[in-house]
Write a structure and sequence with these properties.
Layout lengths: L1 H7 L5 H15 L10 H10 L3 H17 L1 H18 L12
Helix pairs in contact: 1-2, 4-5
């Protein structure tokens, strides 16, 4: 209901707000049926690659979100660097380069 209320805040009627919220849900919670897949994907890719349907849907979504919301993705790197700083250098960083 929060999504519907968010859309209602944009001045949309209840029906339009519900439709917009449903579209958001469908975008982020993928349809895993085989209807959208080609025969090659159904018969080949799904057999050789685990989680193929999820990967096929998630990769374009992540790229789109990376372009729309780069700050959220930058935050992941900031957390990683902060964690690295808190733990100190790894033992691999103490080794002399082999030449």
């Amino acid at each position: 209901m929060d999504q519907v209320n968010a859309y209602r805040g944009l001045g949309l009627g209840m029906e339009d707000a519900a439709r917009g919220a449903a579209m958001q849900v469908k975008k982020f919670l993928f349809d895993y049926t085989d209807e959208g897949l080609t025969e090659f994907e159904r018969e080949g890719m799904k057999r050789i690659m685990p989680f193929y349907s999820w990967t096929r849907n998630n990769l374009p979504l992540q790229l789109e979100q990376l372009l729309k919301q780069p700050g959220k993705y930058a935050a992941v790197e900031k957390v990683r660097k902060g964690h690295e700083y808190a733990l100190g250098p790894s033992p691999d960083e103490y080794r002399w380069p082999s030449g």
